Amino acid sequence: MASSTADSPAGLSLEPQSRRVGEKAIVAWLFLAALAAVLITIAIVVALLEPAAEFFRFVSVTEFFSTARWTPTQADPEFGVLRLLAGTGAAVLYSCIIALPAGLGAAIYMNEYASFRVRQVLKPLLEILEGIPTVVYGFFAVAFVAPLMKDNWWTWLPGQLGEEPGTQFILAAGVVLGIMIIPTVASVSQDAMAAIPRGLREAAYGLGSTRMQVATRVVVPGALSGIVASFVLGLSRAIGETIVVLLAAGAMANLSILPNDPVFTMTAFIGRTSTGEIAYGTTTYYSIFAVGALLFVVTLVVNLISIALVRKFREVYE
Amino acid sequence: MPDLTERHSPVPETHHTTRDDAMAALPRDPVFVTDKLNVYYGDFHAVTDVDLSFGKNEITALIGPSGCGKSTVLRCLNRMNDLIPTARVAGTVSYHGLDIYGERVDPIEVRRRIGMVFQKPNPFPKSIYDNVAYGPRVTGMKVENMDDLVESALTGAALWDEVKDKLKQNANGLSGGQQQRLCIARAIATMPDVVLMDEPCSALDPIATLKIEELMAELRNNYTIIIVTHNMQQAARVSDRTAFFSVQQKSETGDRTGALVEYDLTTKIFESPADRRTEDYISGRFG
Amino acid sequence: MSHQSVRTRTAVQAVRDSSLRLEKRGVDVAGELFRAVLLLCIVLGVLMLATLLAYVTWRGWPRLDLNLFTQMPSSIDLTTAGFLPAIVGTIWIMLGVLVTVVPLGVSAALYLEEYADTERWWNRAIEVFIQNLAAVPSIVFGILGLAFIVRAPLALGPVAFAGSLTLTMLVLPTVIIASREAIRAVPSTLRQASMALGASKWQTVWRQVIPGAVPGILTGTILSMSRAIGETAPLLLVGATTFVQFLPEGPLEGRYTAIPVQIFQWVVRPQEEFRVLAAAGCLVLVVLLLLMNSVAIWLRARFSRES
Distance, in angstroms, between A159 CA and closest chain C CA? Predict the structure, then answer.
């Protein structure tokens, strides 16, 4: 063993010349900064759970999920959150009918059909569409889309479907919400499609496939988990969006999926109630947090599904 | 300057004669001694039981086929393997008698004394001057006159005359060969006593390669040089001693691992190798 | 073909009759239809964008005057009302976001890219937390800001900086993800060269990694600022007030409002004049965002060309 210092030249030392305390402090700070995401998440949970627990002292969990009416501001308030969940579901349903196929189609077009130059134009356009603030979409929904639909309603439709809607209704909110999340679905889907190895695509073309065959039989199946992840992410965006539904979907806790009915979503309830004159410490005040907690849980589940799916498609090709 | 035709002959004879007479099979004055050096990357046993010693002011070449672990061994000598999270080293590497994998040893102190030149020239995207001054600055060397230090390092790397008028220009504007000599200048500016070279010419054209080889012959007067090379002629041209590595199957598990096959004077390795595998590799029958 | 000889024509005919055909087999109806549907999908988005921009411009144009930028909001004289307090409020909020989110986000990204051992479960957990945080609804951040920043423990009250901190938490994941990409793009050969010269890890990060990643970090920061500037829902909860007829005294005192919140307040009122004001406000916000996005896209193009 040569670890003795006997034959080493005088003065040679490989021991640390400084303890580099500053460096350790910096690393500690960097770790703390990375930990911020965890701390914020914990803070969210605490911020929601504490007042939500207070709420459940007045309204039992079973009551919360089984009552049929949501009338928090009435003299004898009732807190049946299913009404809000259904409202969110209805708005999200219409937005997904638009955004999922359109986003997927846009992604396939961008990845498989568009020339380099066309893509150079389309990509920034989609980025702009993604960057438009929700309040602008909200304005567009109430000032343009809703009146346009109302004035041209399909009154020949049978029964209640044919009735002209009021100023706020599901379809107006759903359509604008859908337009809003098209870029999210498109960009995540396209990332997944771009990750498919060139060789696979070339092999399919080499066997004489047409573009459509390559797109539908190689690219879409290969990127499936990424595409599903983009759908799930779009869904999560739609569930959590506040301003558009607050402005365009209304504030009536209906149990309806008819396009011409107004509904009240979870986010709209939080936004509307917390900006109104609600006395601190009332059950209604605490209900904001209970609904917020439910919203957080729903999006958390959806997000974790999407994260797992994205990991899966990364694993396959990276 | 040595005669160029002589340096291009596949087997250098005259070049080594004077030194070889005085050289024993193992270096008398080793700078590095490795003892049962083993390296693992995760579960992969990259190098098995390497015992080597590297002589002072000599050029030692590490040769062998891809995956034989020669670069891995080189990277153990300045603890660059520490930067790979899964890498693990067993055995000892003693540098002037100190185990550089000892408990109290700071890898940064090790790297300050042992310079390294990489496969692809990797100058920093800064000026030529700042590239050379980088090492002295980060290591906190007491430098009286940085300009002088930069000049002497660039002169030492045979680059001064070509760049003295454009020291403030970005180093990325230099040719590949110049960039690699800049990297050598950068390495010697911290006044190391060893320079490790990991296939320093593999990204260069033949003329730039020749310049680096000439430079190595000069650097040998002041530095101990250890070079990994794929090019057997290069090993034969420049080195005093050669270590031949090969890929072997471990007897117990059958897994592949790199191991040292033969280590001797370069003339011996290239003229009369003792091991059959060395002979096959040198003569081009394998690898 | 008429000028060809009979023999040539017969020969050509013979080839035609054989089974080898390289010409198009007529129109691929399904393929063309598929292509048209795909094109429709992307046109739908682009068309909507165009409609939105045209509509907002058309409605807002009459009020896009100097008063909009220099006057206080008013519920009486709507033809000269402006949203100066909202502009000042947004500037305060965004400055607060900038000085908090950049150091925090870049530091976190440096830890994850340069120091974290991805084999360790806690580092992987941190990554999942960041990914999840990126998709938490913005209004939930509003609730958090209300519970922890406006009220105890931070108890800042409804001031602009409370809005800043809330938005910082909201865009932190975006900044971290963009910075990580920028850091990853710095060639590892530079890190190795620096370490081999005896630089410590932090010296290497400070002198090589950070300078190399600055363009990417800058682009990511601008893009996340452009997201934060349009956020409305969380600010509604942390005290951006509906009707402010005075300028905020500073980031830490006085009530405040912000451009998107002001627009929101105009949208909810039914009168035509408020609709026009809202449209003008939307136009200002969109132009601001387009400017920020263009700068980011230009920066990205410029630096990707250089490297």
Answer: 30
pLDDT at B21 over 60: no
DSSP result, C54-77: HHHHHHHGGG-SHHHHHS---SS-
Given an 8 Å threshold on Cβ–Cβ distance, is A129 in contact with C45?
A: yes
Residue with tokens 């011409």, as numbered in its chain: A260
Task: Please tell me whether residues A46 and A78 are part of one structural domain.
Answer: no
Residue range C80-98, pLDDT digits in tens: 788 888 999 999 999 999 9
Nearest residue in chain C measured CA to CA from A25: C202
B71 touches chain C (CB under 8 A): no
Query: A318 lies in a domain?
Result: no
- In chain C, residues with a C-beta closer than 8 Å to the C-beta of A126 are 45
Look at chain A and report how many structural domains it folds into: 2
* Residue C143 and residue C250 share a domain: yes
Residues in chain B with CB shorter than 8 Å from the CB of A24 are none
Chain C nearest-CA residue for A100: C41
Domain identity same for A47 and A169:
no
In this predicted structure, the answer to whether residue A229 has a pLDDT above a threshold of 70 is yes
B53 token code pair: 């010693």
Q: How far apart are CA C113 and CA C180, in angstroms?
A: 6
The residue range of the domain holding A12 is 2-58
Here the ipTM equals 0.90
CB nearest A139 (choices: C227, C233, C278): C278
Inter-chain residue contact B124 with C189, CB threshold 8 Å: no
Answer whether residue C22 shows pLDDT above 90: no
Number of domains in chain C: 2
Which span out of A2-6, A175-179, A212-216, B269-273 was modeled with the highest average pLDDT?
Answer: A175-179
Q: Structure pTM?
A: 0.87
Which domain CATH number covers A181?
1.10.3720.10
